[in-house]
Design a protein that fits this description.
This protein has 293 residues and is of the alpha/beta class. Helices cover 31% and strands 17% of the residues. The model has no long low-confidence stretch (mean pLDDT 94).
Length: 293
Amino acid sequence: MSEQLFKSFAIIGAGPNTGIHIVKAFLAIGAPILVIARPASTNVAALPTDDPNLKVVRADYTSASEISTVLREHKVDVLISTVTLVFGGVVGQNVLADAAKEAGVKLFVPSEFGIKPQLAKGGLAFQKTDFAVYAKSIGLPTLRVFNGLFYEFVPWLTALADTGKFHIVNKGETPGSFTAVSDVAGYVAHILTTQPPSRLLDVEIQIEGQRATLSEIGALYKGRAPVVHCDALPTEGVVNAHFRTFFQKHVEAGGGSCGWNPVTELDDAESASKDNSRWEGHHWLTISEALEL
């Protein structure tokens, strides 16, 4: 007998960077999705208003009992989180996990959607590692999705959006994984609605739209923006310049690849796109296509 697929989906953190794209991907394939928004959130204004498969409710993300009540009332099988790391949302996922566990949610998709986090305290996105440990400790199955860097993230990472110049820290010659946000969103909607639970519970997904170096991407901007190699990003007019420099150095060390192993600090390039095949026949956007270069 074949396994019954997941039927009921909810998302927390339907903001402009990732969440709203996932919501639209579900709606594009006719799959119903529940958006749980903060009481004062204005992000819902960007959501469609006439799609019968979309429902929006508001709840306090810091209240496990309130979130749990919503999840139970809507019989949610899968809870997706796209809360931000920058504003402390990832740290607050423990509350969401408690709520999901209490409500009988079958699968929690935490806010990963990027490179693999470092393991040690103080490492890049280590809070995501801490959450994975916590979810396992309470017996909540997770599906972690690693897609490398979003193409759309590159102009920010290189300070191109701030300065008009494509800044590369050091040589920028280490290959990394890059993927379009629309591909990641579509992939999440596809596998959650088509894959049996046994292929999703406590699984780490690795996908990659295109493998490239920052130097190769910089070359695509020829005639559009000058490429500058530097030891660190300029600080004048560049918010969080030190963090962006740190991030680029991590990519240069190999951490930008989905095949990167945070334990051994080695990259298995062949495994970086090992789960692309779950979306049969899909055309993965290239960097040039996504950024219109």
